[in-house]
Amino acid sequence: MKLHHFIKTMAIAALFIALIAPFSFLKPTIKPPIAIVEKPVVPVVKEKVVEQPLHNVVLPNFAVIRDIKSKKRQFFEFIYPAIEQENNNLLALRAEVFTMLATLSLEENLSAEQETLLKHLIKKYKISTKYSPLQQLDELLLRIDIVPSELILVQAANESAWGTSRFAKIGLNFFGMWCYKKGCGMVPGGRDEGARHEVAAFNSVEHGVQRYLHNINTNHAYSVFRTIRGQLRTQEQPLSPQILATGLLRYSIRGTDYVLEITEMIRHNQVYFDEILPKPMEEPMNL
């Protein structure tokens, strides 16, 4: 019995060994770690788009002029001819209005050409059609008038950073004027979301100065400016740029600080005006 039990035990052990033997010689398969090769990140370089001018005017490169006196003189000399031209155009038109006013004051009729001109000016300068012809002409005299060259020059310098701003170089806008029709000018970089205004672009310096003068002469924001100018005319006083600057409070959100800066610029740059501007001003006092 003991022998039989021993044989049975050995048979079971042999069977067990036979079952596991094939696997006892297998080496565990260890997969080597997969090397992760990181691809170098190539930075995406956006090609800088050079904004092209919206005009054909050759502008001096004021940004490279290091000498301050030279830069100021060149800037004023570049802008002044357009100012002189447009102010002279206003004086000529103002003389026409005086002639019509004198005609009606004598209870005479205007000529057909004068009637046509009056209708055109009433529309252009936004005069109420409810006024009588005499009232319309009086109102036109308040609006058809010059702005002193010194004041225009320092505003142009202030608004355009002496001709180096993007809006001056690309769109000949030296006065920071806005427009509201899509595509009428240049979209400001910091424009608020939902805003639609653009900075107006012009095809010539003369066009830009003309628009600036028309804005001063018609925009409700500058009615105080026109009133001060009219009072100086009535009192036969010179059109002082410093006095008239006080009527530009609404030209900038800076308000009083802007006016003080402009008047200070007029004072500081008087030496250049003495060189560039004609003396005395070529206009009869009664105009």
What can you tell me about this protein's structure?
The chain has helices at 2-24, 68-105, 112-124, 133-143, 149-160, 166-171, 205-218, 223-234, 241-245, 256-268, 270-276, and strands spanning 178-179, 185-186, 198-200. With 287 residues, it is mainly alpha-helical. Mean pLDDT is 87; it is low at 14-28 and 281-285.
Helix segment tally: 11
Low-confidence stretches: 14-28, 281-285
| Rg for CA atoms | 40 Å
Oligomer status: single chain
Side by side, the strands of the main sheet go 1-3-2
Nutshell version of this structure?
This protein has helices at 2-24, 68-105, 112-124, 133-143, 149-160, 166-171, 205-218, 223-234, 241-245, 256-268, 270-276; strands at 178-179, 185-186, 198-200.
SSE layout and pairing:
Blueprint: H1 2-24, H2 68-105, H3 112-124, H4 133-143, H5 149-160, H6 166-171, E1 178-179, E2 185-186, E3 198-200, H7 205-218, H8 223-234, H9 241-245, H10 256-268, H11 270-276
